[in-house]
Amino acid sequence: MTVISRNPADPADVLLALPSPGAFAAADAVERARAAQPDWAYAGAAARSAALGAVADAIEAERTDLADLAVREVGKPLVEARAELARTVAIWRYYAQAPYEPTGAVHDTAAGPGLLLTRRRPHGVAGLVTPWNFPFAIPSWKAAPALATGNAVVLKPAPEATACALRLAELVGRALPEGLFTVVPGGATEGGALVSAADVVSFTGSSAVGRTVVRSATARGIPVQAEMGGLNAAIVLPDADPGRAAAHIAASVAGYAGQKCTATRRIVAVGAALDPLREALAEALRAVPVGDPADPSTVCGPLITETARNETGAAWQGLSVLAGGTLPDRPGWYAAPTLVEKVAPGHRLLREEVFGPVATLLPARDLDHAVRITNAARYGLVTSVHTADLDTALHGLDRLDTGMIRVNAPTTGVDFHLPFGGAKSSGYGPREQGRAALDFYTASRTYTLGSAGTV
Q1: Is 181 found in the same domain as 141?
Q2: Active site annotation includes 227
Q3: Catalytic residue among 261, 300, 341, 353
């Protein structure tokens, strides 16, 4: 296999083409990381903190060029690419403070002299398998906490984001000892080898691949987390402002061509909200700027591959289209932001995550009905609820089977200092980001310290 990365806005522009290194390369990277990890774990909080801070500085110094690289390699609109780099810097700075956090607790013994201690220690080598859509932020929010807690890291990025990953590794490598952060390009072969060799695994990607990763890791008895997408709903209640709700939803449907696991795929309009929302949302989606991701005014750029563009276009065939429903005739792999309605139960758009700028408008009789519609999907990542009545919102929130709930806000958007993850088919294992990540990348040990004079 050859790893090929193309510019999705200009497929003739090939960023790189290199041979896949194979399973041995992944296993070798893990062994080199395992050799480097003990010294890093015992280097002390100050050394690890300073190194992660230096990574943040290096990324910040190159943020303009890195944003341009994300635009070119994965088609991310320039404004979003710049925001991702700002978030990436903030992630490394946040976790640079983590080495100073407590790693355990002291307890009294049940009887007699001595101490009981708990202490969290690193697993060893963290194997990270990441997607292409956030080529700097996702590897960073996995790698930074892993490194902060004393682990080494081996990263297997999606082939479409290989250039971004290699550039990130170059910058991280300036601040860390050799062998602590390694990128292994490639596909399923290299990813499978990494999962088979690492001591802890974090995955973000499709449900099909994620289930394979989980099975492989759990068979080995190692910790694993998997974030596997969403079929996210936005519930709009009759008292919500339709224009404001439509603006939030349109941004979540069409931003970055809908290529986010948190993108809105279903819009559930409750009662009298349906008609005004239909009109406002169709108008908002028609107004979304579609075009060259390097243009600062672009909101919806290209799909990542020709296959992704064609699958998105096929998803709305035969349906009632309220906005969009076209594949623009221009270089690159574009699809117009699209809203459909009158979709029959069991249709693909209500069962599967179509990774493109297309969403379905669904009517609901009342809030209880809206909750049932939302929960009917096998995914459960994030739901947004739009209403002027917080009491009404709270009435339905606890019955939603989703890992994250956002009120009067888009489904998209991540607060990296809080736990991130979903329920049902959207996720497996502990949450990532925030302090939850520090727990995931460490194992708890219990120590009993008895007195030397105790009989």
Answers
A1: yes
A2: yes
A3: 261
